[in-house]
Specification:
The chain is of the alpha+beta class. The protein has a single domain, classed as GIY-YIG endonuclease, CATH 3.40.1440.10. The protein contains four helices and three strands. The protein is globular.
């Protein structure tokens, strides 16, 4: 069974939040950290994974990504802090 992930990245100042969707979270975060993962994350140095959720339904993942992208910054912060109140980089220690 394939897994799909919705994730939120930020930079060290927490000034930008990037919401994305992928079927390979580790590789996608690696791309963002190397700054070849996308224009937004490259420009704002958003490489710290602060939130993610997993589903086996690709359509649910795409809908969830769109839903979160439509939220206010305050609501996204509340979502992040519901599972990661210290804003730790959840990908720290990944290869």
């Amino acid at each position: 069974m394939k897994s799909y992930y919705v994730y939120i990245l930020t930079n060290r100042h927490r000034s930008s939040l990037h919401t994305g969707f992928t079927n390979d979270l580790e590789w996608r975060v690696h791309q963002h950290k190397q700054r070849y993962g996308g224009v937004f994350t490259s420009r704002y140095h958003a490489g710290a994974l602060v939130y993610h959720e997993e589903t086996s339904d690709v359509h649910a993942a795409i809908a969830r990504e769109k839903q979160i992208k439509g939220w206010s910054r305050a609501r996204k912060i509340a979502l992040i802090e519901s599972i990661n109140p210290r804003w730790a980089d959840l990908s720290s220690g990944w290869p």
